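hey so u asked for the seq, here:
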Amino acid sequence: MLFGHIYSESEGYLVTFSGQQARFTNPDARPNELAQTYQLSWAYPQEAKEAADYLVEEAQRERDAYVGVHLFTRANTRLAKHTAPTVQALWLDEDEGHFPELGPVPTAVVASSSERRHLYWRLTHPVAVEWAVAMNRRIAAWADGDTGKAGLASVLRPPGTANYKRHPQVDLVTITTTGAGPWEPEVLDQAIPELSAPTTGPRTPYDGPEVDLAPYLEAVEVLGPLPDSLGTKYAIVCPWVHEHSGGDRTGTRVGQRDGGGPWFWCDHAHCIEAGRNDEFSVFRRKVSREPRTVALRVPGTRNDDTKGIVIRFD
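ran it, structure tokens below
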């Protein structure tokens, strides 16, 4: 049930990981230290049943079993660079924390023990992994959960297996679907608080001319305002959305500090690599509706002829 919930109709390789508590054979082993670990890859969706059966068999052999929370483009790897470019679910390992009751209801809850839970939010459409990881960190911070499990190499316990961490107590891993969702990514982006430390916007005092942000907001699709104690901020659809993996519309903000400094930020790798972040001038040129003029030479005139036709683009 979990595979279809988080992978949906995606294709790639799912990763399974298993190991036995080292203290079963070594009394001096550290708590929850795993020995005799194995990592395998399975083609998804073709080998989904075989992977699920394998995980159950590992649990029956008193081995802790885990599964990757997203797919990979290559087998036998958990390197971030081989991660599938999009995912269709967000995830949280609550650890010792607890996701706020007032937050968006998860679509699935996996009880990894009698006291610990993993939460999943199925999405209406695929989103870029960069945005998903950023959102997972925000969710984990809000829940006081395990921020280390927000990343791309994370593996979590699948239902149908068993948790031997507190052996001889054995906890069965179970799943409950809540009936919520799937969620629009834009809704989650606005509902989940951003990290307390600001990661977007100008980092130095602004001493340039006064900028009216309104014309630039009119030139893009605005998804809604976002809270920002340092000024105004809006979630927008990136003007370079066609370059995002899967055409992902999330993860882009534009705003203005109270001191007047405008800024633009996009979480997606294409925009980061192109040097667009923290460069409002690049965003401004992309969406500007100011008229432009181009002088064209009249065919048959001399090269040094300064006369031409001026065309105005509105």
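The chain has two domains: 2-191, 198-314. Confidence is low (pLDDT under 50) at residues 290-297, 303-314.
lmk if thats what u needed
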